[in-house]
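This week, look over our next protein:
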Amino acid sequence: MLFQVGGQGSRPTFFEMAAAQQLPSSLRAALTYSLGVLALRRPLLHKVLDYEDEFFALLTLVLETHSLRNTDACFSESLYGLRRRAVNMKLKNKVNSEAGERIHQSSLEKHQKVLSVAFLVVLPYFKSKLYTIYNKEREAALQATLWGHVGDRLNENDYTGGDDHSSASSNASDVEGSARATMAKRIKKIIGVCYPWIHAGNEGLAFAYQLLYLLDATGFYSPGLHALGVHVCRATGQELMDTSSRISRIRSRERERLRGPPWLKTLQGTLLSCSYAVLDYAQTGLIAAVFFFKMMEWWYQSAEERMSAPTVYPPPPPPPPPKKTICPLCSQKRANPSVISVSGFVFCYTCVFKYVSQYKRCPITLMPATVDHIRRLFQDV
């Protein structure tokens, strides 16, 4: 556990829940950016980026399964010292008190853990896929409005010809392929039309739950937690100790189940120890690695920008006056001609001295100048 946000009671604050909910998306964005930078030098990583949704879903599946199995909390919740508890609604005894409901919290059951993994891994995966399809359909619709249906024009120019026997043999496969393509296109169009409404409804419902949670009108932060019948609570010190002892018992039982020759048991035990170490430090390691990478990337990028920054030259001066003997300030014939060394323009001595003393710049190029930059000319051409 890296963070423990302050607060009283077992009920987490709104900010704790919001931080725990936003952590997976922030972590995914950081990992995607890191892989994108590393792929510039390792082209093999482009294959991982091509299957970004699947890769992150697999990583999330491993982390969430391990976290729910050991701590009764998801990956981000365990990072903030939170735990999930099942909510059982029971009727009060009418003799002792009035009729009502009593909320009794207990540890998660197996089906609740499985459903929690589905809500944490499967649903975000499908949301990401639907969002990708919606973006493609929106881009295709925009392109169609600007350039027309490119696919239809290409289909009209398809190659025709060949012998009748080859066209007859491929006719069935073409019909089947076209039917599948038509069905897939229709499904994508339906997704493109329905996705904004589904997304708006989902976000609106989530906002309503968050507002009610903020106002202390409900104990469920999101619709998913309400559907699962799960409350998120702060973990006490005793619960943390019980979790550590439970993890130790589970791992000792797994080691006792190893079968085979001694060398095989040793190998399996080593692999188990390595997997336990990787999973135990996955939370701290992932966040620390992303933070370190971002810091190094910022450091080297700022250094490269300083080294490769182009030299800024002053803007070119305006063209000189049509008559070379006219002072640009008083528009009269120059008296006691003097030049400003930073720009090279010639003025009357009294005119340029007054101007530079007051404005500290060249009156033509606006370059910084002082009276020390004024030089008398003893031969005015």
Q: What stands out?
A: The CA atoms of residues 4 and 146 lie 53 Å apart. The first helix runs from residue 14 to 38.
